[in-house]
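# nightly structure sweep
# worker-07 picked up a monomer target from the shared queue
# config: single-sequence mode, recycle default, output format = structure tokens
# input follows
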Amino acid sequence: MLPVTIWMNMPSFYQDDLFRALATKVDLRVVYDHELTADRRQLGWKQGCSDYDFSVLRSNRKTYNAMCIAHSERDRMHIIGGLWAEPAFVAAVLTLGMAHAPFAIYAEAPNSGVSRSAARQALRSSIGRWIVRRAVGFLAVSHFADDYYGGVGCTPGQLYPFGYFRESPPPPRLAHETNGVDIVFVGQLIHRKGIDILLQAAGPVLAENPSVRVSLIGSGPDQELIAANLRSAGIADRVILEGPLPSARIHERLVRADLLILPSRWDGWGLVINEAFAAGIPVIASDQCGGADLICHGVNGYVFRSEDVGDLRACLGAFRSADRKQMRAAAVQTSSALSIPVVVDYLVACLEHMTGIRSERPIAPWQQVVAELRRLNDVPMSVPN
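# output follows
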């Protein structure tokens, strides 16, 4: 079995499904930078999983501990999750690079909306180019990461499309048609998620169509402001603040919905898109969501220009006149390429290709499905995913 060490910031049930399955295919070890934070514990997250080997860096000598692990395990394949998130990970990568050990980076593109000093950007760029020259591969979370890492010297041969994945219950039977439209948003109630854009776009739709309802599932610092705006607009009875739901209940709520909207100003991926497809419902997402890579426009959902209220409203209109049964079928078909067994087989194939064990370069299964949906529905490449 291929020996693999994965470096992640902290234990997450979102990754447990992937790691649990991966441990049956490779000799897996996971190194966490730190233990669960208090806010994650309050949400019900657990401290790691007994189905795979893991450890947490010592808090008092974290950087030194990371360098020692990297040096002692230089004969293993390493995957560094979120390189810039933890200083200890940068130290580990530098150690691996100097030891000529095989390593890959698993990361999103940095959020372009986050300001950084010129000195910090220059340092990142310099270190980043050094790392790129030594990495055997990049598990790039969406096309945004492809573009970003390509811009710092990563060659196309080093890039392997990836995302975020978790196991979901089997897709439901296709629901019967209803006259109403239950639109849901799932996520934090914060400015970055674009809830204001959703409400502006949905306002006229709600006014003209009594059967349309919007539910906001989640919590956050903007909750009171959103509630006040809904009361002021007189639509508090049509836009429901459902509050947060435990992760285990998200699937059953999505199954009862007709459409998920993720109007984010920026999302490196947006795992709820996967969850919506697993529930058999289509998705409208902004073009600043990495997970929009999964959407075939007009087939399993729609992609709109971020912050363009009119474009989102047009997508809502298109959905209301579309064949919902066909869209649900396309959503389920997309979900089949996102299941943990399929993703793990693809990940192992990527690692084997990076290390020279496999000669044939693997193709991301979700890209194959989206391409097939395009072909079957005559969607031109000029139309966004």
